[in-house]
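[09:14] KT: can someone run the structure on this one? pasting the chain below
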Amino acid sequence: MDQQRILDFVHADPFVPFDIRTSGGRVYSVDAPDFFARSRDGRSFTYYTEDNRIVVIDMEHVLAVELANRPAA
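[09:31] RB: done, C-alpha cells below
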C-alpha cells in the first residue's frame, strides 16, 4: 500500500471516515484525522483507538483502505 494514498484520505477536505485493513485481518476505523499519525520515515503509522490505546502499524501490513459508510466523529 502506498502511504500517500492513506495520507490523501487523512487530509481530505471534507474528511470522510475510512477503514484500514491489515494482513493480520484487523480493521482499524479512522473516524477523524486526529486518530491517525504517520512516523517520520513513513514506514509506520500510529492509530489511536476509542479506548485510548495506541496501535503502531507497519505500512507493509496495510492491504487496503476503504471509505466507510458512517459519519465522521
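[09:33] KT: thanks! Strands lie at 18-22, 27-30, 36-38, 44-48, 54-58, 62-67.
[09:34] RB: yep, looked fine to me
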